[in-house]
Structures
1.
Amino acid sequence: MVELHGLIALTDRWRPETHSFHLALGEMTITLEDIAMITRLPIEGRALTGKVRSDGWRQWIATLVGVEPEPWTHETRKDPRPSGVLFSWIQKHFRRCPKDASSGVVERYARAYL
């Protein structure tokens, strides 16, 4: 729960116009090294990307965040998300993490935004 309060405190202090956090001690910017430490992804060496496969992506999202995106049903427009979700979908399902959420639920909310 402490991590959730810390995350809320940081989001309240984020300034999109400068891409930084404004804290009592001054301004703080997130660096690539910070992201590497948080996500445990390497920042040196070969890129992690490869071929993007769009089949089965809805089930993969459901495995990661617990909610499967609805299939595209518009008859005249092409699906704008052939292998991912729209931010509006993330906001619809993960806008506010419940106050009494278990650590697993908090992890799913964080994963949805990452």
2.
Amino acid sequence: MVDEALTILSVLASNLYAKAAIVKANTMPALIGILQTGQARNRENAAAILLSLCKGDNEKLVAIGRLGAVVPLMDLTENGTERSKRKATSLLELLRKACQ
């Protein structure tokens, strides 16, 4: 069921109103937890969702950095699927810029 929920959230995260609802529901800590311990497909979707939620929002980027997203994202860049590698690399680059 987690697979399906993350797939749906991944699609919804591209919609402005859905993105606001996802953030309001305080999902970022759970998504980072999935990045840390989830199965490969779930980690991939969590990275895609976080990228959609944080793109263009330095406050959210700093928040996920504080919540421990950096290490699992770095792991994805080395050990993930091609899609998760791209998403993790993009998110790490945005994090780097936000923290400068």
3.
Amino acid sequence: MASKRRGGPGPPRRTLTKAMLLPMDHASVREQSLTYHLALVACRDGHGNRYLFNELARAMYVAWFLQQPGFGAEPIGQYKTAERAVEAALTLAHESGEWILAEDVVPVFEKLLALHDSQLAVAPLHKVMEAERRLRHFLAGNASSPVPEASQDN
């Protein structure tokens, strides 16, 4: 006798399409990557603005959220350094009107953007969409950061 599968309590599971199970298409990956890398160049060279710093923060947080299910292994400290650098740049911009990323953290962002490029090239689209959903949830909340403080062993 064949048994029927019964769904448990809660909402029904969403069926993932083939496109959702595959990585993003190459053109979309290149476009997103170019956006983030140009934002970094502009912010590094003192031509940043609120939008460009938000793009850097967005890339950093989506990279963090994609790292959680195994797409990357950057130390937490790298993310915290990048996060603090964005906060410092926003404070400087508020005080002086100068939108610039500190020179000493540019290599940290370069590393995180390289990681994010590779994540976008291999992570299934549904994982990228989930990371972006988590970013929206974080932005809508009142938590100061989705990245935990680095411990001694990270």
4.
Amino acid sequence: MNNKTISKFLSLILRHAPETINLQLDKNGWADVDELLSKAAQHKQPFTAEELEEVVETNDKQRFAFNADHTKIRASQGHSVDINLDLLPQQPPEFLFHGTVARFLDGIKKEGLQKMSRQHLHLSHDRETAVKVGSRRGSPVILNIRSGQMHRDGFLFYLSDNGVWLTDNVPSKYID
């Protein structure tokens, strides 16, 4: 398997559907590396520990992380399965960014930004990252989020291991 294929497989298994290969995640989203490798091979998705290390190390978005001794792995954020990343609330920068496309703007104006099926809504610390995110679905539209004001108004923000800002939702009044 190539790195992109392994990364997509890991995203499915560690973020959304560990049951696909009968893998157990603990309450914090960690999976045993040996069990992951074994179950992936049993389900005709084999890759080596060395390939896994390379995918985690070279993933441009740092989507995955190992524990200190590399015996466990988890996705850094983006889960639709119920886990607790054990992140503490943090004060966000005054502004964060969200990349989307024009066809979603009417809904966003009415409902704000919603986490949908994920555990958190993802926000970027810079416009460049938001452009990359928005570009996945077409011509990007970048929304400026008044995250500092949201925080002062009592909204909670978390910073994932890979630098993505997480929150539950962004009401439209905080979106420019």
